[in-house]
Amino acid sequence: MIRIKTIAGLVALLAAQPALAAEHLPNVVIILADDLGWNDVGYHGSEIATPRLDALATEGVVLDRFYAQPACSPTRAALMTGKTPMRLGVLSPISKNNPTGLPLTERLLPEYFQAAGYQTFMTGKWHLGHRDRDYLPKSRGFDHFYGHVTGGIGYWDHVHGGGLDWQRDGKTLREEGYSTHLIADEAVRLIHSRDPARPMFLYASFNAPHLPNEAPTEAVERYSHIDNPYRRVHAAMVSELDAAIGRLVDALKAERMLGSTLIWFMSDNGGLNPEGAAPFLRNMSIRLESWFGKPLPLTALEFVRTNALEGGADNGPYRKGKQSVYEGGVRVPSLIYWRGHVTPRRISKMVTVQDVLPTLLGAAGLKGGAADYDGADQWPWIKRDSATPIPDYVTQGLDGVAFYRFPWKLLELRSGEVELYRIDEDPMEQHDRAAADPSVVEELANALDAFPRGATIHLPLWKMAWDPDFFGGEEDREPWADIVN
Questions:
Q1: Is 144 helix (H, G, I), strand (E, B) or coil?
Q2: Fold of the domain spanning 26-273+311-392+455-482
Q3: Cα 370 from chain centre
Q4: pTM of the predicted model, to two decimals?
Q5: Which of 14, 158, 231, 439 is the most buried (most CB within 10 A)?
Q6: How far apart are CA 294 and CA 274, in angstroms?
Q7: What is the DSSP letter of 471?
Q8: Where exactly are the structural domains of the chain?
Q9: Which residues are catalytic?
């Protein structure tokens, strides 16, 4: 028992409490890649060199059945809330002119850590609302934000949709440099300059390897043996991302933090490739390109063409890619590394992006409102302590909606067709069992119909088409950080 003999002793003990707490609370680092395909990492057999990720995979827990949403904003919404995006009304990428974002009624992941005394940092891509200050990272639990708030940007010019999108804590920055390198620079600086008496939560949300296909010349030259020019540059972008992740790990090591830091790496959706595009859009883009060359004369058409034809990701062996509810659009690379705290191995249990929030709170020993999540705390399973539930999971893409009740997956496609797969036995979705198992179709369809749906936050398509998003290029308006309400 500690005996306190003087008021001064009591004050000293109370002052020491944050430092004592910091010794027992782990640092948490989330690393999010943007449009990284299943077969874009070396530890999945890719031709792309990712030695730093491969090392983390060898020494960590590889989540062999990790699911994101088919697109960026929905995955980020689930990551930040532990809830299904359909419930939140976040159904697709948030456009540059969208006035709102992730509903302000939600309590976000960094807010839990902030309340527990963590210093909370974010570098990279936000994409959960940017036209009103209340939706920005600094208003939603982050002490510090550096990066961009819209979707894809030019890697060198940092432009999205005609406006410069590069800032630090709400103030526009005009910096030279490749965005992947700059995001890593800031993360490394934050690691070194943090308050060592307090635990750290760092969200490093890279925009790589999202379009546009841009990489340093020397990085592209290392992949000169790849014939497809889009795949060649994509590979270089992934390698630059891998090197940036290595720099973060090296900074943690230099600060002697690896033993006290949980690192969770994942992609926000399957990689972008022509296979994942709707056949109509792909065929139309090929035809228009043959007529007019590239770029196409209208910005909206050029945006469609680049997304339909220029994606260089590889989601093999799974079907399709980004924006699709087939496995190639949602089953993504993910791993957890925590030196001395997890047993290196691969686990095939279904874990999803909506599990991340409750799992991290569980790993850190923090309290949260379990009844408020659609996901579940998977930490006991990852630690090999005990079994954990596999909640139902819903994804929505351009081609339809998918409902998972493992091992079953029901697809209700926009074409009106219904498909059913046992993804534990048929992960490539080659054998539709809808006709053979009508009772399962009925059970899952009823559960999907009953699933809560929030009011959409998105603008109508026609309002986005007149001033479409695009990545990089000339500036024709004020920087995005300067026009916040």
A1: strand
A2: Alkaline Phosphatase, subunit A (3.40.720)
A3: 22
A4: 0.94
A5: 158
A6: 17
A7: B
A8: 26-273+311-392+455-482, 394-450
A9: 72, 127
